[in-house]
Structure formats: structure tokens, C-alpha cells
Amino acid sequence: MTEAQNVAAPAPPQPPAPAGARERAIVAALAGRSIVLVGMMGCGKTSAGRRLAARLGLPFVDADAEIEEAHKLTVSEIFARYGEPYFRDGERRVVARLMAEGPKVVATGGGAFMNEKTRDAIRANGLSIWLDADFDLLMRRVRRRPTRPLLQNDDPEGVMRRLLCERNPVYALADMRVQSHDAHFDVVVQALVDALADRLVAAPRRVRVELGARGYDILIGADLIGRAGREIAALKPGAACAIVTDAHVGPLYLKPLTDSLAAAGLRSAHVSVPAGEASKSYEQFARVCDAILAAKIERGDFVIALGGGVVGDLAGFAAASVRRGVGFVQIPTSLLAQVDSSVGGKTGINSALGKNLVGAFHQPSLVLADSQALTSLPAREFRAGYAEVVKYGLIDDFPFFEWLEQNRQAVFAGGPARDEAIARSCAAKAAVVARDETEQGDRALLNLGHTFGHAFERICAYDSARLVHGEGVAIGMACAFRFSAQRGLCPGQDVARVEAHLKDAGLPTRIREIAGWRADADAILEAMYQDKKVQRGALTFILARGIGRSFIARGVPGDEVRGFLVGELET
User: Fold this and answer.
1) Most confident of 85-89, 113-117, 130-134, 508-512
2) Topology at the third CATH level for domain 3-200
3) Least C-beta-crowded within 10 Å: which of 10, 116, 161, 374?
4) Active site (catalytic) residues
5) In CATH, what number does 204-377 get?
6) Torsion (CA) 467, 468, 470, 472 in degrees, nearest 10
7) 180-218 pLDDT, tens digit each
8) d(Cα 313, Cα 293) in Å, to the nearest integer?
9) Distance CA 88, CA 477 (A)
């Protein structure tokens, strides 16, 4: 790029004030960040961006226009004279400068977001929105302006299809996605304003876990990872943080979290473990504890669990152990962790003799359930987490189960119904934890399906390719209802209703559905005798007299359980 491109552009005319209260709230919630529109050529970034800026009372900048003005050449002429690599390097520098200049609406070129350093600059000081459009709309628009340098060839449609395949997965990394339609751009701008308001203005739901002086809040909503620094600093200004994450979650959310902590004046370090149940081991526990100590975390500081249930259990046990207990913050990124393992203070690791047999009760100081993080969750993991949501309806909340029957598809689609399901699940667990923190009484009800499920997981050697925890719980809950019916406790229509709902959600309900299953009833029974609820060698199950009418059944005869399992394996 020429020297002129490193010089700040002349100050634009002062923009008008935002039109209304909603727009003012959006600008305030941006907290000095810019809105950055990304997407393919022809998606309408410039036209929509200019109108959005006017609506919000922010300056508007077109990154390509900045480059053209500095060179006194069009983008096509820059490509022709200097080549694409030269243009991309300059584009990166221009976007970095724009991000450092303060809040505005920025329209980027189609290839800008493909550069990792550009994405980092946008993430640090902006909110990115992918303006998505279908192939036909893009081609109609670009044909009106036949100067696009990447389409100056004999097959522009083929090039456009190739670019869409290459770029769409990267555009999907943007903070938000809004569809661009073949309509007046005011329609697109309204969609942008609605999306921004939903993300930035709507206050997160708050569920309180009442434990006296040790009580804490669970916040549920979008972009809570981005505001984690503010929430944690409100607890203890200036605290240091050790983040524990895994190899899958870290690349997605570690940087936004550390940026948020830094912006709030909080020092942080991190340690990453391999993804999967195998990380709940003595070896990884020791490694995490040493990393926390190396980060000079003191009793007034925090360990942050950024990940699913495995990371939460492991990080929580480390937080309970280092210096005999340091502060702990849960940022669960899986549905299962958001509605279950992140709430209530159970932490631990696995032993060769069974799951979660080594651990401690160590309550968090804060739980941030970022529902936006669930968009990156594989479908199988989301379904597995949903089993724990269903559990709360089956234990003692028949109206919630009915609500899930009516709203399951909306929960899976995301949005308000998903936040509602998470909030109701957390409230249900919070109420139980407040009554029975250390599982001396009815907290055991939360283990509905788990005596069966944990046994299945152990027999599968915690191999997630064969069975993940939520799938084991789904089969376990179906088994618990069928076992209850066999004992004459539960009506058959309730059993059928539970099975139908789990199947409708894509969850397994029978042992034979576990991949590669070969174990017999005796092997399952032996694994059950390692369950934490076993007392003086007697089995304890959570059984049901109907949906929403679960109870603790102690001293269940092993021979009766074995007979039930034999029948299960034959069907």
C-alpha cells in the first residue's frame, strides 16, 4: 500500500443522533465497538450499511472506497496493476485502522474477513455481521456492476459458486448472521436493527442459587462470553483468572474471553486439555493444578471453566483443591453443561472403578450460560444435552414436560424458546441444590436415568464415538420408566409418552441402540454397584409413579434389576 493509506482519512461530517430509544440502546450496548458487515460481493453491505449507520447515528465507512481513495484507482485497477496479494495486505491494514478509530458502521470487501488477522482486529473492536444472500440474488446484483475483479473471466457463475464454498464457512465465524433479501434495503436494515437489539439490548435471564452468603447468579443469554470480563470484575475488581478449556472449545471462544477479561482489567492465563471424557483423569487434574499455580492464582482469584461438562468438572475440582480452594466461574458451552453440570457445585474426575468417584463439592461464584455458544455445538451433542432438559420435567414438573412437547422444535431452532428451556432447567436445579447442597436427600432425584446411564458409559469405556453422556441418560430414563412400570408403579401410557418424546428429539431409548454393544446383564449390574448412590452394597434408583412424579427407591434387589436387564437386552 502507498504511504497515504496509513494516514487517517479526513473526519467525516458529524452523523445525526440515533432515531429512537431502541437505536440509542443499541449504540450504548456497543460500548465503543464498530458494526462490521461481512459477506460476498453483491450481498448489499454498502447499501445496507449506509442506511444502518444513518438509523443508528453512526459514521459509515466503506473499506473498499477508502482503498480506492488512497490509490486514486478502482479496486479492479489495483488488482490489475499490483495483484491480489498486494490488495489483500492493504485491505488488512485499512480494516485494522478503521477498527482502532472508534464506533462506526463498516462495509468490508468480500475477501476481507478471510484474513485471520483482519478477523482478530474486528473481534477486538467490533461486532461482525454476516450479510448472507443466495446465489441467484448475488449473481443478479453483480451483473449490474460488471467490474468485480474476481469475476473478470469466462465463467463468473462457476467462480461465484467456488467462492461461496470457500468463504461461507469463514463468514459463519461472524458474531451474527442476517439474511439479505431481494427487497428494498430498508427491509434488510430493519432485520439488522432487530438482530442487534435481540443480541445487545435484551437483558440476560437471571436465576439465583440461594445458598446464603455463598449464593450465586446464573446468567442466560447471548454474547455472555463477550461480557464475561464485566461480570467477573463486578465480583472482584482486578482479580486474576486461570482459564481451563479444551482443544475444541479453545479455538472458538478463548480469544473473545481473554479480550473481555483484558478490557475489564483482569489478568488471565490459560491451560487447554484434550477434548473428551478421558481428560477427567488424575494425570490431567495434576496438569491443570500445576498450570493454575504457575499462573500465580491466589485465593481471591478465579479459575474459569470454559467448555462442556468435562472441563467444568475438571476445572472445578482443581479450583476446589489448589490452595485449598480458590474462586470458580463456570462458562459452559454445551447444552448439557448449561442445564446440569455447571450448576450445583459438583466437581470431580473419573477413576478406573467408575465415573465421578473422586471429587468435591465446590460452588461457583458465577455461571454464564452463553446460549449463542450453542450454535457451534454439533447436532449430536445438542440432542444429548436436551436429555438433561427433559429430565427436569420428568422429575417433578409435568407442566414443563408438556411445554417441551409443544416447543421442542423451537428449542432446537434457538432463540427465546431455547433460553426459556435453559432458564427453567437451571431454576429447577437451583431449587433442589438450595434444599440439599451435598446430596444427602432429594438432590439424588437429579440422577434420574443416571444409575443406568453411568453403567452404560463405563461399559463403553467412556468412548464418545459409541455413547455420550446425554445419550446414556436418555436410555437410562427410558429404562427407569420401563422398570417402574414393570414394578407396577408407573402407567404404561406415561412410559410410551416419555419414549416418544425422546425419540422425537433424536435420542436413543434402548440398550441395543448403543454402537457395538456386547455386554450382558451381569456386566451392567456390576457397573451399577460402583454408582455413588450405592449404600452398604444396596442399589438406589430414581423411579417414577408417572411423568413429574419421580422418587428415590433405596435397597432395590440386585436380582430384580438383573431380571429387568435380561428382558431389556432381549427386546
Assistant:
1) 508-512
2) Rossmann fold (3.40.50)
3) 10
4) 324, 346, 388, 429, 439, 443, 447, 450, 454, 469
5) 3.40.50.1970
6) 30
7) 877 777 888 888 988 898 788 777 889 999 988 889 999
8) 18
9) 55
